[in-house]
Amino acid sequence: MTPVSSKLHTDDVSLLMVSIDTNPFFWNSMKSALPFSRFLSHVLAFLNSILLLNQLNQVVVIATGYNSCGYIFDSSTSQIQDQRAENLLQKLEEFVEKDEAQCREDSVDGPGFSLLSGSLSMALCYIQRVFRSGPLHPQPRILCLHGSPDGPGQYVAVMNSIFSAQRSMVPIDSCVIGAQHSAFLQQASYITGGVYLKPQLLDGLFQYLLTVFATDLYSRGFLQLPRPAGVDFRASCFCHKNTIDMGYICSVCLSIFCKHQKKCTTCGSVFGEAQVQDSSTTAERKRKAP
Amino acid sequence: MADKQVVKRAKYKSSVKDPGVAGVLKMRMERFVFVPNDPTSATKLNVEFRTIKGHKFTKEGSSKQALLNLTQDQGENYIFEFDSFSDRDACREYVATAIAHHSEAGRLVNEKSNVPVSNEQLSRAETERRIKLLQENSELQALHKQLVFGGILTDDEFWATRKKLLDHSDSRKPKQRLALKNEMWSVKPLSDGQSNRVTFNLTPEIIHQIFAEKPAVRQAYLNFVPNKMTEKEFWTKYSRAEYLHSTKNVVAAAAEAAEDEELAVFLKQDDMLANEARRKVDPTVDMKADEGDDYTHLPDHGLLGDETKDVLESQYKPYRRSFAQDLNQHASVVLQGRLVDELGDTRSVAEALARTKQAELSDEISNRNLEKELSDKICRMAEIEDLQGPRDTAVAPLSIKDPRDYFDSQHANALKALGDAGTGTKPLKSSVSSSKAYGSLRDLVSEIRGTGLSDPIMSHDVALKVLSGLTQNISSTRFHLGINPNESVLNRLPKVTKEELLHHWTSIQELLKHFWSSYPITTKYLYTKVTRLKDAMSQVYPKLQEIKESVQSDFRHQVSLLVHPMLQALDAAFAHYEADAQRRSSKSGERPNGFT
C-alpha cells in the first residue's frame, strides 16, 4: 500500500466491504425481475462511485456462493484504473467455476441458501487486519447485497459474526433484493447500527445504493437515512412454529412452547405438574372414595 | 379465659399516700368488683373493663409498694395495693388481657363502618408506612383512590405488589456520621508575642481525637485522673509535652522527663502504639515503609556516612517520635472512622475508646488464622490458570437440539407477519439442476464482460421515482416520530388530556397485572376477583373513546395510535376471559357417567 500522509486522511475515508450474493439458484429464480448481469452493472457503477468520492477510499468485494466464498476484488492492490471492472469480472468467473466444482448436489429445490456467515467472517477478518495496519486507517463498514433466504443452519455463525462486528464497531448495512425480508440481516443491521433496506423498485437499484449506502460513517451523524418500521424479533413456538404472544418457557434452555408440555423437547428437562384445576379430576377422586 | 376470674386480697387506695381500705378484689373478663372487708365501709367498686383504658404499676423493689393503677378515659383512677408482687403481677396480667380484649372488640366494630375491611390485622407501623407512601406519591394516591375506594381491588391486593416500596421506606438508613478531622496539629498553641505564655485550646472534639490517636495518653488519663491529678493539671502537662516536642529540643525533653514522671509518659514513645503498629499497618497508608525505599532524601543518600552523630542520640532515642509513625497512626485512625459516637464527658470518652480497643484486641487474638487468610487472598489474586487443577462443574451439560428446525419456519412467519408480497415474483418452487444454474450464471457474467456497463445505468424516471420514494419515507417517519425525541406527541397535547391518558395507562397496567396473575382460576375468590376486574376494564373503553373525541382533530390520529396498544392489551385480556369462561361452561356441562 502506498504510504498515506495524515493530511489527506479526512473523517470520511471509508473501507467498504461488499458482499455479493452469487447463489446461482437464487439468481435463477430472479431471472425476470433482475437478471444477474443488470445487477452486476448497478453494483459496478456503484463501486466506481465509491472510489470517486474520496481518493483514499477502499473497496473490497467478496462473492458469497453456494458452497464457498472468496475475495474477488480489492481496490488497494495496484491495478490500472480502467481495468478494475475487467479484473473483478474475471475473478468472479473463476470463482463461480470453483464454486460449481465444489457442488455436490445435482439439483436444488427453490432458491437455496448462500453462505452469508462465511462472507461476514471473511469481511471481519480483513477489517481486523486493517485495524492492525497502523494508526491511520479508513473507517470500515460492511454492505451485504443479498437476496437468498436465510439458512437456518447458519444461525449461530451469523449471530456470532454480528456480535463480533458490534464489538469492533463495524456497521453492517443490508440491501435485500430477494422476495422476502431477511431476519438475519434485519437483526444484523439493528444490532450493529447499520441501515437495512429492501428496495421497492429493483430497476433503480443503483439509485438506492448511491442515496443510502454510499454515505460514510461520519456523514451518517447528520444525514437522515431510511429506518425500517420494525425489526422482527417476535418469538415463535418451537412445537408448531407459530408466532405467539403468550406461552410457556422452559426454565433451563428458554425454549418456547404454546401449550403445556410434560418435557422440554429441546433440552429434555422434565417439568413439574401443573395446578389441578379441572372439576373432572376431583370428580374422579370422589368416585374412587367409597 | 373468659370465665376465669382472679380473686386477690388487696387494699383500695384513692391515692398513693392513702393507707387504703382492705378488701377482696375479684376480677372477671367483663368487670372487676372490690368488696371491702368491713361491711360498713362505703367503698364498693363495680367497674366494667370496657371503661378501663390503661393500667400502671410500680416496679418491683424492696422499698416500694406493690401497686396497680387502673386508669379510665374520664380520668378516674383506681389504685390497688397488694400484699405481694406476685399477686399484683397476676392481677396485672389479667387486667392486660381484659383491656386488650375489650379494646379489640371496640376496634373491630369501628372498622366495619369505613374503608373496605382488611382480613389481616395490620400493625400500626405498617399502616403508617402505607399512609406515608400515599402522601408522598400523588400518582399512587390517585390510583389507590380509584381502585380501592371504587371497590375494584382490596387494599391488600393493592399493596401486595408493592412490598418493595414499603420495605424501602421503612428501612432505617444509618445516619451519616461526621468523620474525624484530618488535621494533625489542631492543637496549635497561641503564643503571646510579648509575654512568655503559651495558650492551648482544647475542645472536646480535639480531646476525642487525641484519645483516638494516642492510646498511651488515653491510658494515662484513665490512670491519673481523678486519682493523681485533676483534669486541668493533666491537660496542662500534656500541653507542656506537646510544646516541648514542637520545639524539637530532645535534650530539654529528656531533662524534663527525668524530673516529672508523668510528663515522661507523654514524652516517651507510645508503646501501645508500637504494638498496634506492628500488628496491622495498612500497607496503603504506611509511610514508614516507604522510607527504606527512598534513599534520595536520606542524608548522604543513604551512604555510610559519619557515625559520630549517633552517640549522642542513643540515650535520647526514647524521646524521639518519628514523624512517619505519627502520620501512619493518624491516617489509620481517620480511615477507621469514628468509633465512639457521643462526645460526652472526657472520662467516658476515654473509657469507651479503651473498651473498643480491647474488643478489637481480643478479636484478633482469637483469630490466629490471619496468615492463612492472607495466603488464600494472595492465591486468589495471582491465580495462574495453567497450574490450577480442573474444576468439576457439578452440572450436567446441556444438550440442545439443532437450531435448524426452529429456523425453518421463522421464514414462513416472517412472510406472514410482514405481509410483503415482494416485487411481484413468486418464489420458484421447482427444483433446478445445479449445472444449469451455474451455467446460466457464468453466461451472464461473460455477457456483461462482453457488453460492458450499459449507458445509462438506468432510466432517469426510475431514478426519480426511487429518490422521491425514499425521501417520502424518511420524511414521514420524521413527521411521526418528531424532530427531537423529547418533543413527543404526549407533550403537545393539552395537559389535562395527557394526565388522563397517563392515568388510564397506569390503571390499565395495574388491572391487567392483577387480571393475569389470577389465572388459572382455582378458587372462588379468584373468580370473583376476575369478574370485578373485567367489569372495571370494560368501563375503560368508553372513557378512552371520550378522550379521543375531546382532542383536536389533527391530534386525533396520534392519540388513537397512542391508545391503540392499551386497547389491544385489553382486547387480549377479554378474549382470554371469554375463552376461559366458555371452557368452564362446557366442562361443567358434560359430566362423566354415573356422577350425579
Q: Counting H and I runs of at least 4 residues, what is the number of helices of chain B?
A: 24
Strand content of chain B: 5-15%
State the secondary-structure class of chain A.
alpha/beta
Oligomer: heterodimer
Beta-strand percentage of chain A? 5-15%
| Protein chains sharing the most extensive interface | A-B, 88 and 75 residues
Rounded to the nearest angstrom, the distance between the terminal CA atoms of chain A is: 94 Å
As laid out across the biggest beta sheet of chain A, the strand order is 3-2-1-5-6-7
In short:
The complex is a heterodimer of chains A (290) and B (596). Chain A is of the alpha/beta class. Chain A has eight helices and nine strands.
Give the arrangement of secondary structure elements:
The complex is a heterodimer of chains A (290) and B (596).
Chain A lengths: L13 E8 L2 H6 L6 H18 L4 E7 L4 E6 L9 H18 L5 E3 L6 H16 L7 E8 L8 H13 L4 E5 L6 H10 L3 E2 L7 H9 L34 E2 L6 E2 L21 H10 L2
Parallel strand pairs in A: 1-2, 1-5, 5-6, 6-7
Antiparallel strand pairs in A: 2-3, 8-9
Chain B lengths: L5 E8 L7 E7 L3 E6 L8 E4 L3 E6 L8 E7 L4 E6 L2 H29 L10 H13 L1 H12 L5 H6 L2 H8 L19 E2 L6 E2 L4 H10 L1 H10 L6 H17 L2 H10 L1 H7 L3 H9 L8 H6 L15 H5 L9 H14 L9 H21 L3 H12 L21 H6 L1 H9 L12 E3 H18 L8 H22 L7 H4 L2 H23 L6 H27 L2 H37 L7
Helix pairs in contact in B: 2-3, 2-5, 6-7, 6-15, 7-15, 8-10, 9-10, 22-23, 22-24, 23-24
Account of the protein in words:
The complex is a heterodimer of chains A (290) and B (596). With 290 residues, chain A is α/β, with parallel strands linked by helices. Chain A has eight helices and nine strands. Chain A starts with 13 loop residues before the first strand and ends with a helix. Chain B is an alpha+beta fold. Helices cover 56% and strands 9% of the residues of chain B. In chain B, the strands form two sheets. In chain B, strands 4-3-2-1-7-6-5 form a seven-stranded antiparallel beta sheet, with helices on one face. In chain B, strands 8-9 form a two-stranded antiparallel ribbon. Chain B is flat, with a radius of gyration of 44 Å. The model of chain B is unreliable at 106-120, 170-176, 305-312, 407-427 and 482-487 (pLDDT under 50). Chains A and B meet through helix 1, helix 2, helix 3, strand 4 and helix 7 of A and helix 17, helix 18, strand 10, helix 19 and helix 20 of B.
